[in-house]
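Service request form, structural biology core

Requester: graduate student, group of Dr. S.
Request type: structure prediction, single chain
Budget code: on file
Notes: please return the result as structure tokens.

Sequence provided:
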Amino acid sequence: MGRKYDTGLILSGGGARGFAHAGILKALHESGIRPDVISGVSAGAIVGALYADGNTPEEIYDIFAGDNSIFHYVKMKVPGSGFFRTVGLQENLSRHLKSETFEELELPLYVAATDIHRGEIVYFNSGRILDKVIASASIPVLFEPVEIEGHYYVDGGVIDNFPVTPIARHCKRLIGISLNPIHPEEDFKNMFRIAERTFRLSVSSNISPKIELCDLVFEPEELGRYGLLDTSSGKEMYELGYRSAQKILKS
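Core staff response, request fulfilled:
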């Protein structure tokens, strides 16, 4: 049976490192490479939704970096099911998305989220977009779970931080972007650093076999020095992603 799409794009999670997704997409555009279908998780789900909705990589960067940055979404909520609420993210994302449903998007999109009731990964690709993308980006403990049709969902990276599964057999070639290189760290003076490090180690443990399915992979090592919530370094990460992708594409 023939493959349905020429090029599939997989976008990993990575929090604020999602800026690098936009930079790598810019380099792909300049090389004449554009995906026909996207599968994303967490920050990759946010970028994937904006891209599938018709935004250019430069426009996605502007949405991330503007005064009302899409990443300025945290509001403290203690006690409760998470330290932060994603109210700002919902408001900003709804303002920038033209489409309300997956069916309205310009490109097919899959969004991965973890069903914490059933303990399994779910790949959404129909119905309303906003709640599925928010669920996909809700890092457990840090953010509240999202209720969708009676089930509670958290960040899809808990189980699958490189969601190649829903599109692998439908594409002639696969391009992957992974934003979670692991380097030794020593600064664990507060619980947020410990929670972040633990989550990053967890989501990185199941990626390698899936990356091997790709024909082309971008995984900038330098991203390891940036935290999941390091929004102040967005421009650096965007340019880092762009330069590293240019180097790979030229070679």
